[in-house]
Amino acid sequence: MSIQTTDIPFSGPPRHRLLLLTRRYLQQAAIVGVAVALVVWFGCSVRHALAQKGIQFSFGYLWNSAGISLSEGVVIAFEGLRPILRPFSSTDTNAQALLAGLGNTLKVTLSAILLSTAFGTIVGIGRLSTNWLVRNLSFGLVECVRNTPLLIQIVFWYFAVVLRFPPADAASSWFGGLIASRSGVFLPGIAVSDVASPVSWSLLVCGFGAAFAALFVGHRATKAALCAASAAAVTGSIIVGFPLALDLPVATRFGANGGTVLTPEMTAILLAIVVNSSAYVAEIVRGAIDALPKGQWEASAALGLSRSHTLRDIILPQVFRVVLPSFANRYISLTKDTSLGIAIGYPDLFNVSGTVSNQTGRNLEGVIIVMLTYLVLSWIISACMNLINARANARGGS
Amino acid sequence: MNVVALRWVHRNLFAKPFDAVLSVFVIPISAWVIYAFAKWVLVDARWHVLTGSMRVLMVGIYPVDQLWRAWFSVTVLSAMLGAGLGLSMQPPRRLLAVLAILGAAAGIIASFSVGAAHGALITASAWIGVGVWQAVSLSVRARRLAAPAMLLGLAAIFFVFSPPGLETWGGLLLSVILTLTTSVLTLPFGILLAFGRQSRIASLRVICTAYIEIMRSVPLILVVYWIWIVVPLLAPNTSVPSLLRGMAGFALFYAAYVAEYVRSGLQALPKGQVEAANSLGMSTWTINVDIVLPQALRVVVPALVGQVLDIFNGATLVFIIGLTDFLRAGQMILADPQNSGRIYEIYVFLLAVYFTVGATITYASRRLEAYLARGAR
Predict the structure, then answer these.
(1) Domain named ABC transmembrane type-1: which ranges (chain B) (predicted)?
(2) Nearest to A272 by CA among A382, A148, A370, A355
């Protein structure tokens, strides 16, 4: 819709009409012309400047050997025909370095999305608690986080918290499986046994597949059948010889063995982004709960439901339908925020691309690749959230 | 009195079994945290690291013999801040008195650590800020003059502050000036983009929409870095200072966000107004400038004030192009081996300053929202 005027009337004499049409097309042509001229000018000057330095704009450098090392990051390689994941080594190509960086970005992003959604929802509910202390603590947390820059939070978590953990040989061990030390945080992991038969593997995969499908099926009987099938498949795989096992880390003199390890950088950026994002998620959740009609609380209280029952069965299901678009925005911001890992040396996509650019002098190409990647990531996130949103709102139907 | 307190505790902390359980867990933990923090602040912390390095934190590596320029800028800034706060909320008299006393206290503390002249200057600029606040909030004419006066103030700061070289700017003052300049620059550009996105000319609409969407889905740090590397390629024979390149990056990035805010304001406007103006025979330009824009901007002023906070927090990212902002200045102090153990003192101070500024801006934006909502009713 145009703000300015109603549309130009096309009812005048033919000559007048022709004039208007011509003017309109000239307008369009002028704008497109200016835009094209700007882009051409931009391209020409950049090309000229690069030519003076003896550089040609091309993406060929991606296939050269990188010659850099990353503190973490995996690449896909082929052993015969079987794809395997192995740590990045300096003989890999620049493209593989960028992919390893992208992998690190995705690792932080996905973990942060899951953790901050859960934690943020809890804090958001905490802000509406009937307990004065909990309510005000949640409020204080949200205010502190939202009024300070994320960068200083990341730097603080890294230098003032994670690097102040006890050294590896004196590392504390909590709950049997979690070791926090200066050289990283060790979590229980999942170990894959080598002796498991293909039968148990395929049963397990079928079980997970059925459970995943059950999530997306609306029909109740089908859902039950899928759940049963999933349970049967997993049970079968346990009987045949379960291929997965819990792998607890054990503290040793020089760190820890076994389990999954989070490097200090990864720990710091994950902590910072989860805490930061949780504050925003909490505000979204609180806003959505506040926006629900008060009558719902009163009606369910009149029916004799407790506050926790009301929250779980009446409020939250409605809230999650409302907050999904806001969550999508939040997740996109969170993805962009991971680029701040460069401040503490976390090898995310932006950081790796910077290193590669420094090595090769390909700043422009590097930035273009990173920009396009972030664009695509944003699109993927909003597409996924739109899909979930459409499903959630179709089922409720209002 | 005791009974009242007990009743309050019962109602607010132990009203229901679940609340009681929560309280039993939360009270000891928070008491311990408060005790540990208070003990650290009052007993363990060595705050002299701050008094010794305050100059670096505030102005970075700005030459010592030119510091009067920085002081002038601080005075103008405090007047501008006072005017901004005065415009955004009607100040209670008590708050003004408290602020004036706080300014004097800060001046006295400063006169012990950095000299009596600086102490007097701090007191004076705090009082000037409060005075301008009071003046602006009283007079309608002052409100109308506010925008040009702010621009004039900004220009004065640039004029006085820049002779020693833009690359010597640093510290908190750099963050603040970057924030103010960017906030001013984004506004016209963002408004143009918003109108472009709503235009009936298809090509303009497509270009503006694409620009906004692209800027909104890439990180700020990437945009700043990209402008920084592209500008020397576009202007090979002139060297543009990093600060200006950084400002350009910030302005281009945040303009997309301003455009979205303004668009929401444009959409909130009843269509009948434009139609009525049309039927009066007003030109498109007059309609947009005199009728549409003032009302649309009025709706989004709180959002724009909130955006200033975003820009201030984002200003820490200029480390990527080598500028020494407030955070970077703090890290520079920690890089000195003499101060390496004082990491918590520095970071707590940085966080406290950011929090104070942030909380003030949030508060102002909230007051403004309530104030405007009352006016529109």
Answers:
(1) 172-365
(2) A148
